[in-house]
Amino acid sequence: MRQVDDDRLMAFVGKVIGDWGALASAPLVVLGDKLGLYRAMTDGTPVTAADLAATTGTHERYVREWLAANSASGYFSYDGDGRYHLEPEQAVALTDESSPMCVLGGFEAFTSAIQVEPRLAEAFRSGAGVGWGEQHPGLFHGTARFFRPGYAANLVDNWLPALNGVTAKLESGAKVADIGCGFGHSTTMMADAFPNSTFTGFDPHGPSIEAASKAAAESGKAHHVDFKVGTAKDFPGTGYDLVTFFDCLHDMGDPEGALAHTLSALAPDGTAMIVEPFANDDVAENLNPLGRLFYSASTLICTPASLSEEVGTALGAQAGEARTADIARMAGFSRFRRATETPFNLVYEARP
Ligand SMILES: C[S@@+](CC[C@H](N)C(=O)[O-])C[C@H]1O[C@@H](n2cnc3c(N)ncnc32)[C@H](O)[C@@H]1O
What we know:
With about 350 residues, this protein is of the alpha/beta class. It has helices spanning about 5-35, 50-55, 60-75, 90-95, 105-115, 115-125, 135-160, 165-170, 185-195, 205-220, 255-265, 290-305, 320-330, and strands at about 75-80, 85, 175-180, 200-205, 225-230, 240-245, 265-275, 335-340, 345-350.
């Protein structure tokens, strides 16, 4: 039996209690979002459970417990006498979907993702995959919400301009495919910014393509944007000036095959833009809070998704630049570089 240091054991269990709290309180954020509880508190006026229940059409006894739990999490401030208020920063993060700091999508996505656990236990034993489309439906909506703020803050203003000559082509009129587009937020953001260009979003997941098409139709904007069911290895068309992959290459079973097909679909001077979660090449350098999040999501979602598809490369969400560059070169791209980055994403440019 190895010697146990009681102080280190206590410190470790103390850390785990914090993690239990995060786990147990995560569904409370989803409830607060769904029921409009946070939105009813955005102006910062201190409220009691009775006030909040009355304005949101909810039951006071539930709301009282929810307010106390959120306060213990540090999501509200407690003013005493059963009154709570949202600080302006908490209000932005918990209610403002247009802010790059909005955190709601992550709660929806990750509380949905943990529901795959019983299937994963079996998959760990058998090595079988769990396809993207087999996940809880909340994951699809939540993932789109999770990524959208970062794309809104960076895609048009920073990421596209970091690519060689791409913005000029988009301004004058380019043909673009957005692969693994999910709910299509990246596709419509680009279409809104570049009305002379034509955009098609492809994804094998039918319900996501339906959601993307519906949102584009309801936006009332006359952009040249279309959504079609298709995989990265069979999307139709040639002569694309730009083919984009937003946080999806590593989810694919055959990223090399996907990039090889992309190369054959690109115009001779076209560009592939590959946006991946931020990662360093060495595991040891990813052992931090963001790496924890991405490795965990990768274990629950991305790795099983890739293993469910042909080839089953299972790059993982923390593949890093060196491994991604290898895949692009094996697919036939001669030029590959990190065009830019944010704390959350690496943006690569691959060219024929
Ligand atoms: C993490 S989601 C990202 C979705 C979207 N790009 C976004 O940023 O919100 C990964 C997407 O990859 C798609 N995907 C999985 N395998 C694929 C494949 N072989 N070809 C194209 N898309 C694929 C999934 O259906 C899913 O929509």
